[in-house]
Amino acid sequence: MPNPTPISEVLDPALRDEQAVAAVLGGDMVSYRELVERYERLVYAVAWSRLGDVTLAEDAAQEAFIRAYRSLPLLGNGAKFSAWVTAIARNTAYSLGLKHRKELEKRERWAVEQPEFEPPLASTDEKCPPELLRQTLAELTEIDRESLVLFYLEGKRGAEAAAALGISEAALRMRLMRARAALRERLEARLGESLTRLQPSHSMVPGVMGIIASTSTTKAGGAALGTTLLAGLGKVLPFGLSVLLVNLASAISASGLFWWIARLQRRNYREPEGFRAQIQRDISRHGMFWLWVQLGCLMSVIVILINWDLETTTLGMMGVALQPIFGIMGVGFLPVLIWAVRNFQINRRKDGIAHLVFALTVCGGSIAVGLGLLPPAWCELVAIGVCITGIPLICTAPSPRMDRSLFLREQMGVLKSPAASEPAAGVEERLTGTMMLAFARFLGERQLLSAYQWTDRRDGLLLRLQPVKTRPSFKMDIGIAYLPRWQWRHCSWIRLAKDGRVSAHCGQDDEPYLRQLAGATIVDFAETERRVATVATEAWKDFREGNSVLAANKLGEVPEAEIFQVPHERSIMTRAMKGGIIAAMIVMAVLAGFNFRWLSIYQYNDRGIAKFDQRDYDGAIADFTSALAFNAKFAAAYNNRGSAKGRKGDYAGAVADFTQAVALDPTNADTYWFRAWVKSKVNDNDGAIADYTKSLELNPQDATAYNNRGMVKKSKGDKAGALADYNQAIKVDAKNAIAYYNRGDFHSENGDNAAALADFDQYIKLAPLAPDGYQKRSEVRKALNDSAGADADAARAVALDPDIPAACKAKVVMKAASDAAAATPSQS
User: Fold this and answer.
1) 201-232 pLDDT, tens per residue?
2) Which candidate among 321, 377, 487, 571 keeps its CA 20 to 30 Å from the CA of 141?
């Protein structure tokens, strides 16, 4: 079988990207490294044009590459990788800008030039100062600024810039025309020159590849079945259409299952054409209507996303932090918790307890994660808790009797109305609130109530009855007890008075349904209310006397055996439905457990990286160790812990960690690089050279590895090998300042001062604020008998760093004393 064409030899950038993406999906991490190296300047430029801050732009660019890798299977066409990853960077930068908006307002943004050391006699006649560049660039719109930045970044090649933006060249020209109209001609030339040099302060390849190294064994797309399905459809259909079809198929399946369950429920009634079946049919149709309304809204959103680059927008939404999402969900679920707490006061059966525990789990856990009281990874534990507490909620769900309204029972002749037409008499003693709540609990445990509220003077208790037809109304089912009193006219209720009397009210929402069930018969609602009140009064009296069975009979409680052909709990339909839902919750809980492990690993790893950046090496080592406790094969954690140990001085432990990382992932060039650096610290020069060589085999474009290997060879005495490595480092990266410094130092030690002077000149040009460059050049100029240049360089070194070596500082003092003596008139 012939070998495939190497990606680096493909001339067409789109075809090269397509092959690279295919290789990454096949498990080739080196190909993704090539993609990062190829587009890191482009991605950084997009982020910088949005944020205007170097540090945040680098963070956004690195995060964009990590998200792109984790969601690579969602990219249907690998040839569009450049436009895809830049769109992810744009969304990531937008989210990061919102998070740090207060901080950004205090900074100078879009400073395209770094301050350079200017000699004392430098000209101050600057046609376009950096501050003017910054201000003018900041005044542009985000779209125009982004277009201008990418245009100059691509070397004024409109086709590449337009492809990166995902627009046509004509559209790019229109954007550039608008941007240029906002810039003066004398400004654009200087701005273009500055933007051409725009790049991150350091390569993002090691950071990106280090974070995603642990997922290399699972390949980019092994995360979920849904991702695999979309990736498979993406090979046949456009990605947006694939998402639309998947959602449409899911919605049709859900609605079909909903219709089938409702039909089986109706067949289980002893009277398939009775009022219970009729109400159940109407509720099913109503529920189906709202299901398709929600489906229509979802499809509309998807269509909008398809027209607005669904591939990038979906991934942009994935960049939203977990904490705000869970915080919003917890606050949104707060009314449900309030309802569950109050419902528990009138329903302390298993279903009432299940509702309360479920609401506490969802609301409490979500708010705790949203407020940062729990680590973000604990959101998966919250999901596990929701699944576990949801199981008893499903198991204790009440049966679909469809007769839980007292007014409906009166209409259907189920209530045992007393023969007397007079209302029941009250009692002489005053009843307490506890006695009224006890009767309310008696009704609530039989699912006849949904809320309660005390009257203003607490001389009565209002009990909101179940509606004739349950509707998806937030006002009716959530927080009803806190609505103003005048809102209760929409609901049916009864009022318990302290004298033992009960008054009743038929709500406006129930009246139409009662008329519909009555048919041609005219309903006298005043009489209906009187009869319901009378029955409730008699039932309350029996309840107070301890005869709960008689009270329930008067309220029309009918055994379920008289309603269903097969008891609801034992029917095949109920068992299949509950079993399916419980099985789904168990699967979701197991998946959440795996996700908790995965998120915990990355949480500890990311926190360790943050502590490492703050030089808290002990804390970083502890966090990396915690990450390894969740996954002992997490190569990146070994790599990071080895780096922290190396910084702390534990070189033996660092070498052990890097060796373990190499064993887990032998294709990661960065691990060999880090281990070589540690070995050089303990004078294991042969081992360091071997590791640097292996790193360069995996990544031959790593200029720093050549430079470091040259330093080790120099310390070993291999001068020819050291010079060859310095030359190769500069050949790979002509802007590698440290390579010029090391080669200049090499030439200086070997007496080639002219070559050393040229290298130090280049080093100072690339790093104008580094005092060691001026110090070294001062020594070389002194060797070349250029005293004036040597003194000037010494003065610059001292000005940049007062802690410069004493010899250099003494030279400055002597020069100042000499100048003062020359300027003082002679006294002889």
Assistant:
1) 666 666 676 666 544 444 444 444 444 544 55
2) 321
For 204, the token pair is 């993002």
More confident residue, 314 or 514: 514
Residue 614, C-beta contacts closer than 8 angstroms, at least 6 positions apart: none
For the purposes of burial, counting CB atoms within 10 Å of the CB of 93, is it exposed (0-12), middle (13-18) or buried (19 or more)? buried
Residue pair 706/726 in contact (Cβ under 8 Å)? The answer is yes
What's 653-693 look like in SS3? Answer: HHHHHHHHHHHHCCCCHHHHHHHHHHHHHCCCHHHHHHHHH
* Bridge partner residues of 331 (DSSP): none
Residue 442 confidence class, pLDDT cut points 50, 70, 90: very high
CB 747 within 8 A of CB 756: yes
Nearest to 449 by CA among 408, 510, 415, 493: 493
Residues in Cβ contact with 604 at an 8 Å cutoff, skipping those fewer than 6 apart: 623, 624, 626, 627, 630, 637
Kindly report the CA angle at 417 between 480 and 427, in degrees rounded to 5?
75
* Cα 734 from Cα 740, distance rounded (Å): 9
3-state class percentages of the chain: helix first, strand second, coil last, to nearest 5: 70, 5, 25
User: What pLDDT, on a 0 to 100 scale, did the predictor assign at position 698?
Assistant: 86
Higher pLDDT, 788 or 812: 788
Phi and psi, residue 521, nearest 5°: -70, 135
- Name 470's Cβ contacts closer than 8 Å, sequence gap at least 6: 283, 477
Q: pLDDT tens, 66-117?
A: 888 877 877 767 788 888 888 888 878 877 776 666 666 655 554 544 443 3
Give dist(CA 709, CA 731) in Å, integer. 15
Rounded Cα distance between 64 and 92, Å, is 6
Angle, alpha carbons 231-232-233 (nearest 5°): 95
CB within 8 Å of 67: residues ≥ 6 apart: 88, 92, 315, 318, 319
The residue whose two tokens read 């949480």 is 603
Considering only residues 377 and 309, tell me which one the structure prediction assigns the higher pLDDT: 377
Strand partners, 269: 564
Classify residue 820 as exposed, middle or buried by CB count within 10 Å of its CB (0-12, 13-18, 19+).
Answer: exposed
Do residues 390 and 253 touch, judged by C-beta distance below 8 A? no
Judged by DSSP in three states, 175 sits in helix
Count the neighbouring beta carbons within 10 Å of the beta carbon of residue 629.
13
Exposure string for 324-352, b = 16+ CB within 10 A, e = fewer: eebbebbeebbbbbbbbebbbebbeeebb
User: Residue 46: which of 57, 55, 36 has the closest Cα?
Assistant: 57
Angle 703-716/737-749 helices, nearest 10 degrees?
A: 20
pTM above 0.85?
Answer: no
- Alpha-carbon gap, residue 784 to 669, rounded angstroms: 42
Q: How far is it, in rounded angstroms, from Cα 672 to Cα 353?
A: 58
DSSP state of 349: S
The residues pairing with 503 across neighbouring beta strands, listed in sequence order, are: 495
For residue 209, the one-letter residue type is: M
Which residues fall within 8 angstroms of residue 7, CB to CB, at 6 or more apart?
16, 19, 20, 23, 31, 34
For residues 72 and 66, give the distance between their C-alpha atoms in angstroms, rounded to a whole number: 10
pLDDT at 691 over 80: yes
Note the pLDDT tens digit of each residue in 464-514: 888 887 654 433 444 444 444 555 667 889 999 988 889 999 988 888 888
The distance in angstroms from the start CA to the end CA of the chain is: 97
The conformational region for residue 467 under phi > 0 = left, psi -120 to 50 = alpha, else beta, is: beta
Tokens for 756, please give them.
């050393």
